[in-house]
User: Fold this.
Amino acid sequence: MSARAAIAGVIAAGFVMAHPAHGGAATLRNATVIASGTVRLSDLFADLEPGQDQVLGPAPAPGASIQVGGGQLMAIADQYGVDWLDRSPSAMTTITRAGRILDKTFFSELVRKNLPDIGSGPVSVALVNFHPIMVAPDDPRPIVLSDVDWDQRSGWFSATAYRSQPTGDATQDSFLLTGTVHAARRVLVFAHALPAGAVLSASDLQMDDAYTGHIASRAFTDAGDVDGMTLTRGVVAGEAVLDQDLHRTVLMHKGDPVLVAFTAPGVHLTATGRVLDDGGAGQYVRALNLASGMIVTGRVTNASEIEVEAGSGAVRSDPGVLRRLTASARDDARATLSLR
Assistant:
């Protein structure tokens, strides 16, 4: 039963004096804020006689108000024997139920408490189509979650939220809570905004020990792994460095002349060659040693040099390798000129 209906019920019970009038005069409260779940006679009138106070009915929902007009007030006063000072049919009083708002912060913490596998570190909770709700200020556990489902890979979660003290309104007493939850991770992030095509260096990166954003692919934790790589899209400061946004910067192309360096303890030899593969910094490519005709494998150290490690094997090339490389280089040059 609503608070208004409860008070109307008091009136409907008749205008019979349930208690004799008292000598002292009560005064009407023009506005009252109550904390309990019931409306009492003393919420309408001050200065009642001892023992005269009575429960009239249920209070409005937390945060809601009801108004009681002069006709109802006079009927209630007659019903309970209240000698009301300045009695008037034009009088009006408002009763408001105190409440507290449960906002995103409350629900984010509630979600975290219901995900035991998320750990104790920082957590990012983003709620979808969220609307704050009002509850009683003294309710220690106003909301209970059930049917909690969390996909750790995507971060998506859903749960059914129930009021521990139902209002009687089915649309308000339970609702679906959805969003994303991501636990903190230690990852590299961009130190500042960068455009697509930018080649990364150490100054473009920094470590975030408590990153809570969504990570859609492999995230890097070592700046050395991405040094010299190229961005495939523009990024902003604080974004995680992901492999899907990077590609290896090509420093040398198939057919380019290259210096082949042989390194061993106490020995450093070099020879001229032609690279057989496209290669970026740190990648291993094959190259033809022009002096020996052998094909070796080395690591790209810069745009014109590869380093062959001690013990690395070599295979003999066929006589047509250099001819094919030369022809390929000429074709590439013609294609470049035709595009200009």
